[in-house]
Amino acid sequence: MDPISIHVNGRSVTRASEPRTHLADFLRDELRLTGTHLGCEHGVCGACTVLVDGQPTRSCITFAVACEGREVTTIEGYDDDAAMRLLRQAFTRHHALQCGFCTPGMLATSRDIVLRLPDADEARVRLELSGNLCRCTGYQGIVDAILDVLQQQRDAPDAQFERLRQRLSAPRTAAVTRPDATLPAEPPAPSPANAAASDAAGIADMAEVDPVAMAKAKAKGNAIEVHFDVPHPIDRVWAFMGDLPAVASCLPGATIDSHEGEKVKGTIAIKFGPMSAAFAGAARLERDDAARRAVLRGAGQDSLSKSRTQGDITYRLEALSADSTRVHVDMIYALQGPLAQFSRSGLVKDFVRRMVADFGQQISRRLSGQAGPIDGAPPTVSVAGMMWSVLWNRIRGWLGAKPRS
């Protein structure tokens, strides 16, 4: 055990601690600062969020030794903080807490939002809060409290509050991962033109899926096997599946921006309740005509949340009869960023199976000469609507009824 010296809530403390001790345990067990709560202990729920050099940090997955010499602020250390004073009042006014377990981490994240994003609207606030989970409030009160503080600063700016904003936007060094590491200051933000060029270059390279990441995704269980039947001959289905723009037109929310040979660039729009995401990216199709097998390798990024996804979709055709074809689909996917929390649920796999089934119906319609989406489906994938269908099918299954396709 080696001594660790950290500035916590404005005072320097030194304690002997093992290198494997996480910051949350150090704060709670060594310093008795139990306002920092532990929930999932995997960096997912956000209950343990504290500030490290002013930046929200998951203390349950941050080693205490990595914070040597740094400034840590917990929920107990905001007595003289102008932003937190307004947030606490707003949380009370809008009934933004119930059991209070998530509140310390929720306030730390809310402070970051009101200081860093003075022009944030409700959609942006909800996106920024997506890494902090609450089982009680339904989030509306929390969102209203944050919007209230933002509006207060627009109507009657507080001088101390504005100084905190200036301090947060000032150049700073990045957080270190070990006591002896020294990293350079963050680079200046790129100009809009350079940012657009950078995004375009990134999208161009997205079709090169990392095989290591895919192997890890499969090991984590991010793999789905499903199939659907199409009442058409295998040769006709195979020819259709090679037409990428035609295939994209059968997938709700998908649009094609450019198409060159076996490469395609486009966007898939998804709506999850109040949250929306539009993954712009590229994909490459590899076809084996003899085996009636193909692999679509692609990757994309949501410009708002900066969440990134990549994956392989392998499909193989099997002739059931002269006029019927079964399409076997194997998916492996990896998701990083704020939206990654939605990839952990078993409901997501059910949702994907339902989406693939709808995709199969659209293909059947197109091959039968029918244009347009089924029942006027919206141009974005409504996860909420599909999730409700999935849940209803599960309930019917529990009651002994046959699930609807």
Q: Please, could you describe this protein's structure?
A:
The chain has 405 residues and is of the alpha+beta class. It has two domains: 2-169, Beta-grasp domain (Ubiquitin-like (UB roll)); 196-398, 2-Layer Sandwich (Alpha-D-Glucose-1,6-Bisphosphate, Chain A, domain 4), CATH 3.30.530. It is 35% helix and 25% strand. Strands 6, 7, 8, 9, 10, 11, 12 and 13 form an eight-stranded mixed sheet that branches. Residues 170-197 are annotated as: Disordered. Residues 2-78 form the 2Fe-2S ferredoxin-type domain. It comes from Pseudacidovorax intermedius. InterPro entries: 2Fe-2S-bd, 2Fe-2S-bd_dom_sf, 2Fe-2S_ferredoxin-like_sf, 2Fe-2S_ferredoxin-type, 2Fe2S_fd_BS, Beta-grasp_dom_sf, CO_DH_gsu, Diverse_Oxidoreductases.
Task: Give the gist of this structure.
Residues 2-78 form the 2Fe-2S ferredoxin-type domain. The chain folds into two domains: 2-169, Roll (Ubiquitin-like (UB roll)), CATH 3.10.20; 196-398, START domain (Alpha-D-Glucose-1,6-Bisphosphate, Chain A, domain 4, 2-Layer Sandwich).
CATH architectural name of the largest domain: 2-Layer Sandwich
Query: Main β-sheet: number of strands, strand sense, barrel status?
Result: 8 strands, mixed
- Overall geometry: elongated
Low-confidence residue ranges = 172-207, 374-388
In CATH terms, the superfamily of the largest domain is: START domain
Radius of gyration from CA coordinates: 25 Å
Terminal Cα span: 59 Å
What share of the residues lie within helices?
25-40%
In CATH's first tier, which class of the largest domain applies? Alpha Beta
β-strand number:
13
User: Might you state the CATH topology name of the largest domain?
Assistant: Alpha-D-Glucose-1,6-Bisphosphate, Chain A, domain 4
**Domain unit count:** 2
> In what range is the share of β-strand residues?
25-35%
What does the average pLDDT come to?
78
**What oligomeric state do the depicted chains represent?**
single chain
Structural class: alpha+beta
Number of helices: 12
The helix-strand sequence is: EEHEEEHHHHHHHEHHEEEEEEHEH
GO molecular function: 2 iron, 2 sulfur cluster binding; metal ion binding; oxidoreductase activity
Keywords: 2Fe-2S, Iron, Iron-sulfur, Metal-binding, Oxidoreductase
Domain 2Fe-2S ferredoxin-type: 2-78
Protein name: Carbon-monoxide dehydrogenase small subunit
